[in-house]
Amino acid sequence: MDDQRTIGQLLREFRISARLTQEALAERAAVSARTVRDIERGAVIGPRHSTARSLADALGLTGADRDHFLAVASAASWESSQAQDGYVDPPAAPMSEEWPADAAVFSADPAVPPFRILGPVEVGAPGRPISLPGTRQRKLLAALLLNAGTAIQHERLVDMLWEEPPRSARQQIHNAVASLRRSLAATPGSWNITTTEAGYLLQVPPDLVDVSLFRTMVAESEQLERLERVPAALESLERALKLWRGPALAGLTGEWLEEAAVQLNEQHIAAVERTMALRLRLGQASSVVSALTGLVARHPYRETQRALLIEALHRSGRQAEALTVYEDGRQLLADEFGIDPGPALRRVHLQVLRSSPVTDPDDAGAAAPDAGVTAHVTETRSGGAVLRNFLPHSTKEFTGRRTELDRLSDTALSSSSQALVISALDGMGGVGKTALAVRLAHELTEKYSDGQYFVDLHGFSPGRDPLTPDQALDHLLRQAGTAIEKVPPDLAGRSALWRGLLAGRRALVLLDNAVDVAQVRPLIPGATHSLVIVTSRRRLAALEDAVPLSLNVLPPDDAEQLFIQIAGEERTRAAAAGVAEVIELCGRLPLAIRIAAARFRDRPSWSIDDLVKQLRSQRSRAQFLSAGDRDVMAVLRLSYRHLTPAQKRMFCLLSLHPGEDFDAYAAAALADLPVARAEQVLEGLFDDNLLLQQAAGRYQFHDLVRDCSRLLLAAEIDDRERTAATGRLLDYYLLIANEWCRPVAKGPFRFHAEIQHTLSRPEAENPAEATQLLHTEYHNITAAAEYAREHGWHSHAWQIPCAMQPLLAGMNYGERAYVLFEGAVSAATAAGHADGRSMALTGMASVCREAGDNDQARALFEEAIAISRATGNGRHEVFQLAGLGITLLNDGDLPAAEKVFATGYRAARELHDRATAALLANNLGVVAKDLGNYADALRYFTESAEHGNGFSTEDIAILTALNIGIVHQLRDNPEAATRQYEECRRRSRAIKFDVGEAVALVGLATVNRSLGNFAAALEDGRDALAIARRTALREVECDALNALGDIFLSTGEASSAETLFAQSEQLAVRHNLPRNAARSREGIAHVRFAEGDLAAARRDWEEAVRLFPAGVADAENSRRHLTSDTVLQPRCQRCVVVARTAAPSFRSE
């Protein structure tokens, strides 16, 4: 026997079984205790889907219990929407016998489509569906029908059918598709599921699927209503509603299907509400009162239904009952959500209070959804004339905006008394435009004392078309006291009368929620003494003589104050950090802050941390920031409704962008548009305040607008188009990384990327401009690589990091570099690309080496070299030998480094790889210099320059020139060294080569110190230190600190010198730089020597000798002290002003 228990009875039984009070359950589910009580006692027959899920979660329901609870809740919600609507299913044809196997199973009645999901999922004639064995078949069919005509990827189907997919998910889908194919094969029409490259596809004409037919009929009804064919519109809507047989997708569970069902059932309720509205327009007020009363009882939080009931009661002459219904709703919203009624309720309430008939929904005179204000009307008399104030009330919770108010007020008050002032406020939905405009209007009431007029133009209102200019003028004229029979029938006449009425008056006109300039222009009075305030989500740049103000989100302090004002100071006082995170998660958008604060205020058991958890998830944030008719996502979607098709598509696709900002080139790649067209579309979105622009040509989303874009993407753009757009975007970032980095790339990283699409990109005139562009796009390129890694785009996941290796190297491999190359190694392995794996290992090894992890770097270089040898890729191998040699050099193993460099140098020359030969010759010169063989060093550096002439990149050429300068300095030729250093500094600055510039400055500091030019030396040393720290060049930073320490030591400031040497030593130890650590300890020994502590100085010199790598010539400085007849004798170049051996070593890669 079927379970006949109501949802209230089930909830009570499960609650008692869980040993929870109503209050405890409400707290766990994040709903009010009143909601739990109302459901259990039957006052709310059908809870919303989100509420039912929250209750199920709070009760800990799983398996069959959870499925049954949600199914009963869904059915109850459906029944409550159907009750007293006057719509019932047509009776099914009686079945006298089993259908024969060869009988036609599809209805010949086109009004009853064979594929049905508006109720239980069925295929076949009404009452005679074909058998669909198993829940999974029905889920699969539902997924295919909801995406009819579009292929669904296998991975997408897995997400649709399982919340936690089993390992056998792929096979189970294959089995389910085969089974469903067999079921459909028995039907006439040969409906079949085809397998394409994009996934599974079910081709069904839209008129054979009930949900498609329903939407077509609803759209037809809306068109008929716009043509003022109201009876026909009602008939079309009634036919659409008869397609429903119960809650959509009834009996099917699972997160994706349940969300789809919620959306479909919401469309059904909206259609029911439109039906009631149409009946009211046809004068059937009395006949719908009963149905609307039942609807409001079952959906107490739906303000649209309550507004319709109030209107029906008012039209039926039952004003007292209408006011009671309004007050009940106002109290309910205040108790449950801490909010005021929305504009629909305020409008009809105002009409009831004024005892004037509500003739059309366009008779709105209320604030927009983001206003948070309640309208009021006052009349006073001055000199026999009636002066009217139609301004809405200004909310008591208005916070901040003092700067904007002062600016707008100053504009109005400083203008000539003979000037018409027009202030145009624009901003995204929910940012508080109306609230600011209303507050401003109230503050200026005394200056504009001849009347204050207000009209909501409904440019962006839910379920409403914008008012036409003649409709808006009708409202304004009637507010001005014009009898209805005296209102001219045409726009020109109304506009002329409006201008005449305000002539000579100091009036204030607030035109709220405008859709565009064309709607506003006829409403501007001709009076030169008046103030017009216009608000719109669009920038009204074409509005003549207007003073524009684009309203941004609240500053942090104002946003925090708004939250505290609503949530209460007592609970927020000790949670400043949590409040700060909450307002940032709300994007500092006033509407979002109000909803979050009200929810927090009404849940006294919650901490700020609980609120933060609700807001951190993008999916839960969208649901959480909804209360009654106040819904942040719904408010933002209203802007989307007014976009062009190209703008809608771009708005959705932009949510695929993984970075923080983007330009027209990236948008063009996403949308597959020419760049000029993409820029035009982006500017349109910017003008509609759906995009921000922090810098010229750079656009970004507000966080909540991005959430809205992602939700619309899932609903509006199919899997195939999303996949194609993602591929183009990843190709774009691979393209720019490869094209801009390749001119300065070395070895294996100088490759041509595999790019599938032909895309436009910004042109770089020179390497310096390319570097600037790379730094601008750095975060987007890395975000693209990380997205590719996380979502299985293997080719992009290894190519992008390898293409941007020169950029990463120039930034000294920041903290994200290791993760990028680690992902590249995995991706290249998954793609079966040996050279790609070898390149990625090389990048990963370089990161480890620069971080001081020489052991790991050596192992990774050796693995990369083994792959290159196995594949016969000699050019990769010689570059990797250079990297391995530098690692050995850093580790202090000079003989091993020299051997590896020599092996690579021979191989590079045999391969005629002149660029890598230049690199290796330079590094052999560094080894020779460190060993004190200056003639050999100079020979290698000269060979490096010869090999590299016309083949090396400019940075390698600069490093070789720097090393020549160092040899000049060590050979006691400061003039030649200075010339080299100054030339290298100039060349480095020209290409923005930070390493070269910092090294040149260190060299100049040491030379100037040796010549006694201490002021110049100090300036050069400090500049070098600043660059090294900004770019995380740790070895150069140590060298700069040592050079500065030597300068202070030479000027007698031993304490400052010791501090600098100690800093250098700590840094060198942390990053495994033994030569720098030894130089720092040697410097400290000289400080002790200068202070007269000879025993401590000797210990420090001994430690320095121990730290220097074996064979390094620099160690002789300390040895001279230790072998001297008397320690007091100056035995090394650090003891005197001349310090020629203070120069660092510069290897190249």
Automatic annotation (TrEMBL):
DNA-binding feature ranges: 103-204
Single GO biological process annotation from the record: regulation of DNA-templated transcription
SUPFAM superfamilies: C-terminal effector domain of the bipartite response regulators, lambda repressor-like DNA-binding domains, P-loop containing nucleoside triphosphate hydrolases, TPR-like
Keyword DNA-binding included in the entry's annotation: yes
MF terms (GO), sorted A to Z: ADP binding; DNA binding
Repeat as UniProt keyword: no
Record-linked InterPro entries: AfsR-DnrI-RedD_regulator (IPR051677), BTAD (IPR005158), Cro/C1-type_HTH (IPR001387), Lambda_DNA-bd_dom_sf (IPR010982), OmpR/PhoB-type_DNA-bd (IPR001867), P-loop_NTPase (IPR027417), Sig_transdc_resp-reg_C-effctor (IPR016032), TPR-like_helical_dom_sf (IPR011990)
Keywords, alphabetical: DNA-binding, Transcription, Transcription regulation
Domain (OmpR/PhoB-type): residue spans on this chain: 103-204
Ranges of residues in domain HTH cro/C1-type: 11-66
Any Pfam family the entry gives: HTH_31
UniProt family annotation: Belongs to the AfsR/DnrI/RedD regulatory family.
Name of protein: DNA-binding SARP family transcriptional activator
Annotated source species: Actinoplanes teichomyceticus
